[in-house]
Amino acid sequence: MARVPAAERRNDLVNAAIHVIASHGVEGATTRRIAEEANAPLATLHYCFHTKELLFEAVIERLTEQYREVLIENDVHGDVAATARGVLRGLLNWYLEGDPDLASATIELVSWAQRQKDHPAVSVYSEAFNVMRSILARAASGQEVAPETIDQIGYVVGALSDGFAVNWLTYADRSQAAEQAETIVGVLDAWLAANLA
Amino acid sequence: MARVPAAERRNDLVNAAIHVIASHGVEGATTRRIAEEANAPLATLHYCFHTKELLFEAVIERLTEQYREVLIENDVHGDVAATARGVLRGLLNWYLEGDPDLASATIELVSWAQRQKDHPAVSVYSEAFNVMRSILARAASGQEVAPETIDQIGYVVGALSDGFAVNWLTYADRSQAAEQAETIVGVLDAWLAANLA
Amino acid sequence: MARVPAAERRNDLVNAAIHVIASHGVEGATTRRIAEEANAPLATLHYCFHTKELLFEAVIERLTEQYREVLIENDVHGDVAATARGVLRGLLNWYLEGDPDLASATIELVSWAQRQKDHPAVSVYSEAFNVMRSILARAASGQEVAPETIDQIGYVVGALSDGFAVNWLTYADRSQAAEQAETIVGVLDAWLAANLA
Amino acid sequence: MARVPAAERRNDLVNAAIHVIASHGVEGATTRRIAEEANAPLATLHYCFHTKELLFEAVIERLTEQYREVLIENDVHGDVAATARGVLRGLLNWYLEGDPDLASATIELVSWAQRQKDHPAVSVYSEAFNVMRSILARAASGQEVAPETIDQIGYVVGALSDGFAVNWLTYADRSQAAEQAETIVGVLDAWLAANLA
DNA sequence: AATGAATGAGGCTTCATTCAT
DNA sequence: TATGAATGAAGCCTCATTCAT
């Protein structure tokens, strides 16, 4: 079996882990399956990560980063309402049109991570929330918006996208989900309109 | 160990499974742990359910039923808006104040079930949705509300409660979650106000 | 593979462990090898002992018991000198003519045990020493022998038999060892004669 | 990591191996641990020794040499009895006051070596015995001592020191062992007195 | 009907070793 | 020469399940 540099292998393994977690769940994501998916010998997995748990943490880091990129890419640089709307749209599209593995692995890993000793799960959420807050704060700089309101908007955007994701990953019906995404955006709009008036 | 009738044992085992799934995840819910939690011999688990998968399906049935009861108990028999609001409140309270095991086991099992051959996961959602629809439909009987609107309301209530749950189970901060529940209800209110006018 | 009752299996496994430790050392005594030697599935080993360490402790218990039996069987019920002599002879014969696996496994395990958390190794020695002391003490009941002397005799008998064993297990030359056994007994005799006068 | 000449590395590795074997046993003496203890890259171990077995043989050579030095340093150049006594004392002190790693590694390795194909273990003993014999023979040159007697004395000195060592390494109680050393020397004295008269 | 006993398959990890530079 | 990187084989253990009573 051809030797492959470690950096590349680490990358392959993280990708493989994401794929396997997405399709078999955290539960079915065994080291063997992940190594096989990455076309790597089993021992290589442990050479690169030492522990399955460490691999999963690397996966979480990757997901966190992806999530952050989605947020940043969808910053429309408008006012608060438009910005919140853009970010929510971006998230829904990420779930719908991006790599579905990333989305389902995220959902899968959140509860796994929540049971780990040092709760890396919280970091995904907190990191995501921080990025969202800074985006919204910048959008609000010209307006008179209380900091608590910013946080609240961030929470609502997050909750709406999570709620959307759970349903979408359960039914896996794309056209239905596309309609639901519109509904979800409408919900945010109505709430923003009522609260930022 | 005292011999216990199978019917009772089935019940004990389902309860134990819920508890174990909630605290260890689907991943950590081994037959041994479940049997031990139920104070039952390991073989009894297989005597009662033959397969771990069958036990999990029984758990899902139980959760579905619980979910339905929550919906029904929180039917305020008012107009559509009040009813949707009541149902959402009921769900949020179920997560917040009811047996937290039930709530987290539900979230845990949804993605597990989604990966099973015959998708029992969908049944939880569909069943829940059907109940919600019938409740909302009855509430709407005196008003002029399109059937699609009813479905949409059901979807939004579900998504909001799911979004709430994911965050709550991740952070497990009760007082924060209580505030967030208010926000969530506010979101529904704004949307209903804008859409049922 | 035929099912075999657990008690018998535990016994088989302990015997197999002794044999494997004797021939491959603690180092080479893998669970697989032991299970194979016992004609048992690997899982059975863990069903019967849960842990390799627990199996080894059972082996140590067995060895301790054997050692004690050797001592007791060789109690000639004479005076102190004759008794000490008889016990030493018994030990040397045990090494030479008994099951050589028992003897070498004993030597092998002593240093292993010494590195374990709760030092079961010491127990082998202490137990053996206690038995020896009580045998010698009874033999000395009619004579005027200080308790410290009894302990000292016990120590010397032990040290002589250990010294003999190390050499015997190293060279594995039976006829040479038989002569050496005579020498060792002679050493004890000389020392007893000089010290019990 | 600084590149270090192979000769020095060989030395470091042998020292590290002795230390690791002493504290973790042959069983726990993995190449990684040894390399780490020697502050050497893992591959260097195999570059210097090709095989773990070859490293262990080098360790045995070193131990043999040390043992020989102890014997020679403790040659009092007196008559046979005094010389035997001096050598025994030297060995007991080596165990008690010298580097305890050396002593325990010796005991550890003897049974390991005994299981190897070409029995390097025997070489330690034989070499040690030869040295002892030549020392005793020189001491006996003025006296009338049969060659078999010389061999016997060598054997007894060896057996007594081994017997002492096993107990000392098991209990690791220095003050107790110091007393026992006196006893052991007394045993030799009594035997020599009775046999060289 | 109910369960203690037993097991094949597979879990994660670590070993001594070799490759490639 | 000397070593970071990589790996096949084997380590211990636990899983869901089945057997025998």
UniProtKB/TrEMBL annotation, chains A, B, C, D:
Residues 7-67 form the HTH tetR-type domain. Keywords: DNA-binding, Transcription, Transcription regulation. It comes from the Bacteria. Residues 30-49 bind DNA. GO terms for molecular function: DNA-binding transcription factor activity; transcription cis-regulatory region binding. InterPro entries: Homeodomain-like_sf, HTH-type_TetR-like_transc_reg, HTH_TetR. This is TetR family transcriptional regulator. It comes from Streptomyces boluensis.
